[in-house]
Specification:
Elements: E1 10-13, E2 16-19, E3 26-34, E4 39-40, E5 50-61, E6 69-76, E7 79-84, E8 88-99, E9 115-120, E10 135-140, E11 143-148, E12 157-167, H1 176-179, E13 184-186, E14 189-197
Antiparallel strand pairs: 1-2, 3-14, 4-13, 5-12, 6-11, 6-14, 7-10, 7-13, 8-9, 8-12
């Protein structure tokens, strides 16, 4: 009987040559997280602000005998917000990740963040220093960000953590919009995907 050497990306079953499931790109994680804090926004001039979405720690274990290249996709739903003269609203998100038994750090977008949206409005005040009437609305289409993570060794865990916050950058006027402050923000949801891509087998087994 002939002996042959095959890559670990291949398989021989009953004399038939095939390929292993990890040899093609595959979705290994796909979850959507809904905001728990959409709606009215109050004064939040200290970062990171109010937590809207928290994915918690998402884990995938590389079940192949070769390293896996993982593409992280963060698909943000459409967003909308309203801000009153002369205030500002900003939405920030961040993700962190680790390989191995150590958990990723808590995603805090105070100084480093992956994405931000927001607006400010300042159209002046009357002679009594009361901000004149003025409100700004914005609707932002959904967006997607991709991040190639460090290759994951065989049998190791990849852990990802995503969070999204809203805050109101200072200064803040309690008498905005002629003493009728109107502020709100909604991020709706975020979809997190991990796509594992194969790697070449640099050693051939027989």
């Amino acid at each position: 009987m002939a002996e042959v050497c095959v890559s670990r990306n291949m398989d021989i079953d009953g004399g038939v040559l095939g390929i292993q499931p990890w040899t093609t790109p595959r979705h290994v994680l796909d979850q959507t997280f809904t905001s728990t804090g959409d709606g009215t926004v109050t004064q939040l001039t200290t970062l990171p602000g109010t937590l809207l979405i928290d994915s918690g720690i998402l884990t995938w274990t590389n079940d192949s005998p070769l390293i896996a290249h993982v593409l992280l996709r963060v698909q943000r739903g459409y967003r909308n917000w309203r801000v009153s003269n002369p205030n500002a609203i900003q939405i920030r998100d961040r993700w962190t990740w680790r390989i191995g038994g150590i958990d990723p750090t808590v995603p805090d977008p105070s100084s480093t963040y992956n994405g931000q949206s927001g607006a400010a409005l300042d159209v002046g005040a009357d002679v009594n220093a009361t901000p004149v009437k003025g409100q700004y609305w914005e609707w932002e289409d959904g967006t997607m960000a991709e991040d190639w993570l460090t290759p994951v060794p065989p049998g190791e865990d990849l852990k990802v953590w995503y969070r999204c916050y809203v805050w109101t950058p200072p200064p803040w006027s309690n008498n905005a919009n002629a003493n009728d402050p109107q502020h709100s923000a909604s991020v709706h949801n975020t979809r997190i995907q991990m796509i594992a891509f194969p790697s070449l087998d640099t050693e051939v087994t027989g």
